[in-house]
């Protein structure tokens, strides 16, 4: 598992990390995205997501744990699998002392079919003290449908909008309007793929809450790799 910082743009400090899977290419020569979509296609993504949660919770419970929280991605395939919900609940109870520092990102790699039951699952996580974020907002055609149906704490805006906002004035206005809508809904915003200073300037102008990208740090397995503050 590698970790990438997500920075609070108001304070310049790391707010939390996102946990990202990385493979030893000598043992499994496949990109993480390809592996995850394959796991979704064959119905095993819930086991993968549970394994990621377990690995991150082990880190949070260790002496090498970061001071802040860590977000783990959950696929729609997992959220719609009843056995995953019960297994995750048992796992979280086993890590009762650190579970509050585990957050979740709902990914759009697979379509969510039963939005009502998935929202119930999400509200259970939020009631238990976990922050839930809707990932890759705007990347798929169902983004606003998900926003209406799923009550979440934060939304991660797809990096394509960030890059476009840094390149054109129209893109900047579109991003600002999107961020304004989410602010009106009392939802925190995360801008991903912040790779250049111009991206940072434009997301600050759009009053986005958090930033993530190579400008703040590339994914690393070592938390000491990151400075605690970024201006």
Could you give the topology of this structure?
Layout (H helix, E strand, L loop, with lengths): L1 E7 L5 E7 L11 H10 L3 H16 L8 E6 L1 H4 L2 H13 L7 E5 L8 H13 L4 E6 L5 H7 L4 E4 L1 H9 L1 H16 L3 E4 L5 H9 L4 E3 L19
Helix pairs in contact: 2-4, 7-8, 7-9
Short description:
With 231 residues, the chain is an alpha/beta fold. 42% of the residues lie in helices and 18% in strands.
Q: Give the biggest sheet.
A: 8 strands, mixed, barrel
Number of helices: 9
Number of strands: 8
N- to C-terminal distance: 26 Å
Provide the spatial order of strands within the biggest beta sheet.
1-2-3-4-5-6-7-8
Order of helices and strands: EEHHEHHEHEHEHHEHE
How big a fraction of the residues is strand? 15-25%
Structural class: alpha/beta
Based on CA atoms alone, the radius of gyration comes out at 17 Å
Contiguous uncertain segments of 5+ residues: none
Apparent shape: globular
Helical content (DSSP H or I, runs of 4+) = 40-55%
Query: What is the residue-mean pLDDT, rounded to a whole number?
Result: 91
Describe the structure.
It is a single chain. The chain has helices at residues 32-41, 45-60, 76-79, 82-94, 115-127, 143-149, 159-167, 169-184, 197-205; strands at residues 2-8, 14-20, 69-74, 102-106, 132-137, 154-157, 188-191, 210-212. With 231 residues, the protein is α/β, with parallel strands linked by helices. Strand 1 and strand 2 form a beta hairpin. The two termini are 26 Å apart. Helix 2 packs parallel to helix 4, helix 7 packs across helix 8 (169-184) and helix 7 (159-167) crosses helix 9. It has an eight-stranded mixed beta barrel, surrounded by five helices.
């Amino acid at each position: 598992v590698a970790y990438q910082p997500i920075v609070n743009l108001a304070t310049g400090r790391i707010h939390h990390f996102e946990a990202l899977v990385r493979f030893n290419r000598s043992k499994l020569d496949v990109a993480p995205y390809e592996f995850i979509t394959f796991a979704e296609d064959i119905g095993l993504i819930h086991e993968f997501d549970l394994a990621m949660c377990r690995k991150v919770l082990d880190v949070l419970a260790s002496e090498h744990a970061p001071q802040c929280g860590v977000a783990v991605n959950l696929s729609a395939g997992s959220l719609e699998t009843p056995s995953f919900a019960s297994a995750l609940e048992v796992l979280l109870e086993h890590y009762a002392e650190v579970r509050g520092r585990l957050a979740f990102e709902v990914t759009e790699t697979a379509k969510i079919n039963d939005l009502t039951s998935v929202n119930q699952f999400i509200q259970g996580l939020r009631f238990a003290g976990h922050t839930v974020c809707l990932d890759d907002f705007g990347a798929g055609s169902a983004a606003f449908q998900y926003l209406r149906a799923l009550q979440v704490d934060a939304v991660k805006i797809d990096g394509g909008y960030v890059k476009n906002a840094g390149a054109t004035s129209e893109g900047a206005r579109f991003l600002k309007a999107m961020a304004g809508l989410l602010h009106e809904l009392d939802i925190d915003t995360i801008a991903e793929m912040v790779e250049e200073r111009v991206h940072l300037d434009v997301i600050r102008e759009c009053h986005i809450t958090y930033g993530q990208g190579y400008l703040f740090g590339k994914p690393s397995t070592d938390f000491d790799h990151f400075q605690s503050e970024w201006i």
